[in-house]
Amino acid sequence: MQRFKLFLPLVIFALLAAVFFGVERRVQSGDYAPTDLPSALVDKPLPNFSEPALDDGRLINKAQIVGEVFLLNVWATWCPSCHFEHPFLVKLAAEGVNIVSIDYKDEAEAAKHWLAEKGNPYSVTLFDEDGSLGLDLGVTGAPETYLVDASGTVRFRYQGALDQRIWDKEFAPRMAELSPSGSAQ
Asked: Mean pLDDT highest for which of 34-38, 39-43, 156-160?
């Protein structure tokens, strides 16, 4: 029995490693995707809100951001995946994709510094310091990106970092359906 106690941490580690690699294999094979976690907002209007803009503190509400198809990207400086995703968002914005963002549970000065240093792909950034707007959206963590149509209805939600593969597979076809010209930029 004493010998078994010596090997117990190794057995626990092996079991955890097996679970981790099993989940990783499912992600790589496409059996599991972050979008499997459904959003209660898909096909429903964005919630009403009034949040300060990160750059100057003016209050922004829902009526000020709807009217055309846009991405709503939830990010924060403390989020490692957001660092990975940011250059791709800069590229999308340069291609003409309208991206509104929510700086989620973050420090304002750190976020301003981030955007000044890495580039600002956002038409406006809402500063959600306490996470209340994120809570209303059903955010489970950053990054998350919502596709919102011109009327303000959420059409798709993706949890995780965007890259070219995710864009081509998940967002571009939906953007093409929603945009009046039929293209996803």
From this structure: 156-160
**How far is residue 126's CA from residue 51's CA, in Å, rounded to a whole number?**
6
CB 48, CB 136: distance < 8 Å: no
Rounded to 5°, the CA angle 87-88-94 comes to 90
Q: Kind and range of the H or E element at 60? A: strand 59-61
Q: What is the CATH number of domain 34-178?
A: 3.40.30.10
Helical ranges in 30-96 per DSSP H:
62-65, 80-94
Question: The pTM is what?
Answer: 0.78
Can you give the pLDDT at residue 18? 65
Pairing outcome for strands 124-128 and 99-104: parallel
Task: Sketch the domain layout of the chain as residue ranges.
Answer: 1-32, 34-178
Q: Which residue has the tokens 């499912």?
A: 26
